[in-house]
Amino acid sequence: MAKTILLVDDEPAILRALQRTLQRAGYRVLLAESGAVALNQLAAEPVALVLSDFRMPGMNGAELLQQVKQQYPSTIGLVLSAYAERDALLACLNSGAAWRFLEKPWDDGQLLKEIAAAISERDRRQAEQQRTNLLLSSHEALLELSASGQVLRFNSAACQVLGLQPSELRGQVLSALFTDINPIELASFLHKKDHDIQLHGVHGDYFSFSHRISDLQHYLLKIMPVQRISDQVFTAVSALLTAADIRSQIEDLLSSDQREFAVVTLLLPDFALYNASLSQAQLDELLEKTGQVLRGQLPAKALLGYVAADKFVLVLPGLVQESQLLVSIEQVLRPFRQQLVLSFNRVQLVFCVGYALSPADGATAALLLQHADVACRQNLVNPAGFFLRYDAGMVEQKRQHFELSNSLYDALESQEFSLSFQPKIRLSDGCCDSAEALIRWHHPKYGQVSPAVFIPIAEQDGQIQAIGDWVLQQALRHFQQWQRQGHSLSHLAINLSGRQLTDPQLSGRIAAYLEHFGLAPACLELEVTETFLMADIDASSRLLGHLHGLGCLLAMDDFGTGYSSLAYLAKLPVNKLKLDRSLLLDLEHSPQCASMIRHMIRMAHELGMQVVAEGIESIGQVLLLRDMQCDYIQGYVFSKPLNSQEFVSFLACQPIRQQWEELLHV
Ligand code: C2E
Ligand code: MG
Ligand code: MG
Q: N or C: fewer beta carbons within 10 Å in the chain?
């Protein structure tokens, strides 16, 4: 998508000439004839670059760019002016408000070159800002590396997790701090961005590294400790084989004539739990015993390695068919159907299994090991309970996550988001007095991407705050407009994800936006999902308390998808309960379902809450819910989510109830 450039000049002819040149080069161009207009434009939408005249009536170029620098630090300021104002220009450049100075009259070719350079500077600054934000605010242990693997920045959590002093980390090359990676492997890991690595630290501790936000020059990595394992255990269990042994044995197999074999990753998914609850000696015993039992079951010629705290690797040569392989894995793991008897307790061990087959699934030892690992971890996320074979689609899925995550950073600026509004119909009179704003993302390559897919990515990778603020502002802007047009809407709902809700500045920003648009807090309803709220009821009650204190309405979204009971709801200052679609699917066909919903509605009313039934697709459901005194219906039966124009037309045909009552003669 095109980057947006804001041109500021008091001479319309110059604006038009510049606009033509830049639009022809594929940029999106906004125009402002004064500094004040420019600042208004910037408040309405993000801009990559401001190209401003210097001498203008009112606010001059230096004053404008100074404000831009303060309020929008990642936007680049460029001055386009006559050389005569040299001293004032120099001051502007020196203050850092302007990045460069371009001379009038300009040469189109040169101008475009400068603009391209400024845009890449802006991308660099933006990515840096994102990494800085994360380094400052995240509780995760984070480490920023240069392209050559040198440690540039880190947070205190990183020092803590790695057990190193800042002075021991700063300026070091990662491959020098960890024993099991060389600079070439490190470069390959940094470059690929789509998998994790596990490395041994200087004290024998084990860490997993994964990419957070990376561009081509800087890599922000998240570090997770993979439990402390004593050296003795590593050597005792590794009386099996070490990671390096396994790798070289696989290389030997590959260069021999026995190129058909399987590499199997056996992961202990509950390892963190054992580590937290057992003493060091007990943990050591558990691992040694596990190694012994596995070894006791090995088929002839099989190799077994203990390669990471929570991971064993099995190499099974000479297998002709995959079914044979599955039987062999089953045999190796059979003893673990019983509890493992240890001196202090009995433990039921569970393994998560993934495998890769040579030669089909990888041509080198490193690839086969990595692919078996990918399959295993895929099995963790999506536990099939089976042994899972590697498939290139798994990497593709991860790559897509990275690609979506990266394009989310640009999506706001490239105007790829929009809002849809889904009407909520009040059953008492069939009127639409409110709606839910739902974000839409049109990705330049993938088309429409569902918020159910990208919101979790944005939460995980840090873009959620900017996106959430955009949704809030756009929703309020639309609501203000509809009010001015005389539509009788009482409020508009937006969704807040869990991560947004834990942002301590959220209620302050909501209050500021409401004030900016001159709207009462009760115009805004905030929908928060049940699963998030119920995870920690006391913390949720505090967080919601702030928002409730502002005067906003609160709704519990997707009720029925988690495990909460209605009794918990009494503890939260919630105005509305949104019954999830999945609860209501059987409404017309199951008396049990109908009875449960009837009770839920009655109880919610007793707790002083209104009830919204979500995802309603049939008139039959509507009629039943009306009999049950449900307050609102939201669903395709009345309307799909609509763009703002369609929504306004929808509002014009009120009350909607007349239409469906006529339809059904009820
Ligand atoms: P939600 O808040 O429960 O939103 C309702 C979802 O159900 C919407 O999907 C809506 O299009 C869909 N829906 C509504 N009526 C029907 C129906 O009759 N039948 C069926 N099959 N579906 C119906 P959508 O827009 O894909 O949103 C999915 C989820 O993404 C939302 O669930 C919400 O949790 C999240 N989301 C959407 N917009 C935002 C946003 O701006 N911010 C945040 N944080 N999350 C958002
Ligand atoms: Mg919702
Ligand atoms: Mg919902």
A: C
Q: ∠ at Cα 40 (34, 42), nearest 5°?
A: 105
Closest ligand 1 atom to residue 500 Cα is 44
**127-181 pLDDT, tens per residue?**
887 888 788 877 789 999 988 889 999 998 899 888 888 888 888 888 888 876 7
Q: Is 452 in the pocket of ligand 1 (CB under 6 A)?
A: yes
Q: Which of 425, 432, 438 to mutate to test the pocket of ligand 1 (most atoms within 8 A of CB)?
A: 438
142 in the same domain as 59: no
Atom of ligand 1 nearest to the CA of 496: 44
Residue 598 maps to which CATH number?
3.20.20.450
- Nearest CA, atom 28, ligand 1: 452
Q: Which residue minimizes the CA distance to atom 13 of ligand 1?
A: 615
Other CB atoms within a 10 A radius of the CB of residue 96 amount to: 11
- Same domain? For 487 and 372 the reply is no
* Domain end (from 178, 207, 226): 226
Q: Are residues 61 and 22 in the same domain?
A: yes
**Token pair of 321, please?**
């068919």
Residues 485 and 634 occupy one common structural domain: yes
Calpha distance 267→313 (Å, rounded): 8
Question: Which structural domain range is residue 605 located in?
Answer: 416-664
CB 7 within 8 A of CB 15: yes
Phi, psi of 238, rounded to the nearest 5 degrees: -75, 5
What is the CATH classification number for the domain harbouring 19? 3.40.50.2300
Q: Are residues 236 and 222 in the same domain?
A: no
Cβ of 469 less than 6 Å from ligand 1: no
* Ranges of H-type helices in 195-267: 231-237, 243-255
**Which protein residue's CA is at the shortest distance from atom 46 of ligand 1?**
495
**Tens-digit pLDDT profile for residues 360-382:** 999 999 999 989 988 888 887 66
Q: Which residue type sits at 444?
A: P
- The ligand that comes nearest to the alpha carbon of residue 497 is 1
Q: Which residues pair with 51 in a beta bridge?
A: 7, 78
Q: What mean pLDDT, rounded, does the chain reach?
A: 87
User: 305 with 206, same domain?
Assistant: no
Give the chain's domain count. 4
Q: Are residues 305 and 241 in the same domain?
A: yes
Ligand showing the shortest atom-to-Cα distance for residue 439: 1
CA-proximal residue: ligand 1, atom 21 (nearest):
615
Ligand nearest to the CA of residue 419, numbered in listed order: 1
Neighbours of ion ligand 3 (CB under 5 A): 557-558, 614
Q: What is the pTM of this model?
A: 0.62
Q: Report CA(527)–ligand 2 centroid distance (Å).
A: 5
Joined together, the tokens standing for residue 419 give 């809002």
Q: Which residues pair with 31 in a beta bridge?
A: 7
Determine which residue's CA is closest to atom 6 belonging to ligand 1: 615
On whether both 317 and 422 belong to a single domain, the answer is no
Apex CA 36: angle with CA 33 and CA 41, to 5°? 80
Question: Quick check: CB of 439 below 6 Å from ligand 1?
Answer: yes
466 lines ligand 1 (CB under 6 A): no
Structure tokens belonging to residue 636: 């395709």
